[in-house]
Amino acid sequence: MNKKVLVVDDEQSIVTLLQYNLQQAGFDVITAADGEAGMNLAKEEQPDIMVLDLMLPKMDGIEVCKQLRQERMMTPILMLTAKDDEFDKVLGLELGADDYMTKPFSPREVVARVKAILRRTQTLQESEAVEREVGDKMVVAELTVFPERYEAYFRDTQLELTPKEFELLVYLARHKGRVLTRDQLLSAVWNYDFAGDTRIVDVHISHLREKIEVDTKKPIYIKTIRGLGYKLEEPKRDE
Description:
This protein is α/β, with parallel strands linked by helices. Helix content is 41%, strand content 20%. The strands form three sheets. A five-stranded parallel beta sheet has the order 2-1-3-4-5, sandwiched between helices. Helix 2 packs parallel to helix 3 and helix 6 packs across helix 7. The longest helix has 19 residues, at 107-125. The termini are far apart.
């Protein structure tokens, strides 16, 4: 069965271009021309991934993303923006988008990004033998991650994570105690060359900290290693 892509954009020329290229790549494509219609289709059709424009009539892409995540719909989202504005990009990522692209773009690159996101998501959901795992779970103090079940718990409460946040947490847990550079995390988790745009990593690390740290200003699980990157470790007893 072909993967289903929902394209939400109010520019018909872009919709036509993306629809053609995605269909040529073997995807089933459904489309919407405004945010409200896009959100409704996302709920009704349960697509495998969304390509979502930032600036939309009736409801913008950021609000669509926000509401879907609030309703616990974890469909991967590739956000499109006509603005070369870091604030918009970061805000979209903070609200649960998995990736973003700035217009104008190559339709082939969009297809490549869609495939990369789906590949990473599928890999996480599939049963995968990992030497560092203990049985089917990884435990770091009060944090427990079940890669095969696509679940994570902190103090016995299930965490609500976006697909990309979950991928990042799994990678950190599998490399517990090791310092991982931002470039390493970009390559391993995003599986794409972001040309040094490490702010993506920082945004997702910040989100994870909000969900597993008692005090995000003094994190005890995900430590920042100045000049290098991040490390997930067992909290010390006096922390």
